[in-house]
Design brief:
The chain is mainly α. The protein contains six helices and five strands, in the order H-E-E-E-H-H-H-H-E-E-H. The chain is 55% helix and 9% strand. A hairpin with a 2-residue loop joins strand 4 and strand 5.
Length: 140
């Protein structure tokens, strides 16, 4: 009876480890944006799909802060700012300027990226300011 229990425990441990690796990989890829866009429409060594190009073009001209937040911040911070893999930012004590600085420059700790910088992304300075104002005043 003990051998059977040990055999199943070993399998369960291996499955749990594989699941953990899969979840951590998924989170890492999701928060880093999956791939960094390169000049010439390349994303991580591959061409963008027509849907990705259309989505980028739409977001590039977007002025609705809720849409900008959902598309750029929501995957990590949640659509309502309550946090997913990134921290909850709803009701933050940071000023609009501090939020804007964090969105522009990202955050690192001990050399590890915690949040990507959006300064050199498709977002304009105006869009980043809209997002910062939305984080401070719209997520309540």
């Amino acid at each position: 009876m003990r051998q059977v229990k040990g055999k199943y425990q070993k399998r369960a441990s291996i499955l749990a480890l594989l699941l953990l690796v899969a979840v951590v990989s998924f989170i890492a890829v999701g928060c880093s944006g999956g791939a960094t866009k390169k000049k010439g429409g390349e994303s991580g060594g591959r061409s963008l799909t027509p849907q990705e190009k259309a989505q980028e073009a739409q977001v590039k001209d977007e002025t609705n802060p809720s849409v900008l937040f959902t598309y750029n911040c929501g995957p990590c911070h949640g659509g309502d700012g309550s946090g997913i893999v990134g921290p909850a930012i709803k009701g933050t004590s940071l000023t609009v300027e501090q939020v804007q600085n964090q969105v522009e420059n990202g955050t690192t700790k001990d050399g590890n990226m915690l949040m990507p910088a959006f300064k050199n992304s498709e977002l304009s300075k105006k869009q980043i300011k809209l997002i910062a104002n939305y984080v401070k005043n719209g997520l309540k």
